[in-house]
């Protein structure tokens, strides 16, 4: 198995290429933030608001296009807050839709694994009539919280790998 490190808090972490996109792009009032912790972890935190038809906050990470096999697995070391989140990937950063799956966090450090072929296409919260992820590259990934309730959130990421 060949593992490609996408982000590693123990190996020269950088905040470059991480950016927050909230529902304010559609008039909402959610407020997400991103920072590196003193330990080098990626920390996505803030508040989701339902005001003004809002309801989501996301963080995106643009990565150099990385080759993947159809059997590739995303392996992510993270610590959530007990909330449900969405993992999102794109074959290229410029692709308009995302391939997603949901996961629950426990409040403790977890190592989660996701088969890329199991992620399904969505655009603006709607499932698309396209096949599940079947591309040869990943060019962006991210996390979204949007559970249809107002809530505080914090998701801390220590490591992201692609295992082919």
Q: CATH class, anyone?
A: Mainly Beta
- CATH-defined superfamily: Galactose-binding domain-like
CATH overall fold name: Jelly Rolls
Q: What is the rounded Rg?
A: 15 Å
Second rung of CATH, namely the architecture: Sandwich
Shape estimate:
globular
Give a written overview of the molecule.
The protein is an all-beta fold. The protein has a single domain, classed as Galactose-binding domain-like (Jelly Rolls, Sandwich), CATH 2.60.120.260. Helix content is 0%, strand content 55%. It has no helices and 13 strands. It has strands at 3-8, 18-22, 31-36, 42-48, 57-67, 73-79, 84-90, 98-104, 109-115, 120-123, 126-127, 137-145, 151-163. A 7-stranded antiparallel sheet has the order 2-5-12-7-8-10-11, with no helix packed on it. Strands 1, 3, 4, 6, 9 and 13 form a 6-stranded antiparallel sheet that branches. It is globular, with a radius of gyration of 15 Å. The model has no long low-confidence stretch (mean pLDDT 95). This is CIA30 family protein. InterPro entries: Galactose-bd-like_sf, NADH-UbQ_OxRdtase-assoc_prot30, NDUFAF1. Residues 7-157 form the NADH:ubiquinone oxidoreductase intermediate-associated protein domain. Belongs to the CIA30 family.
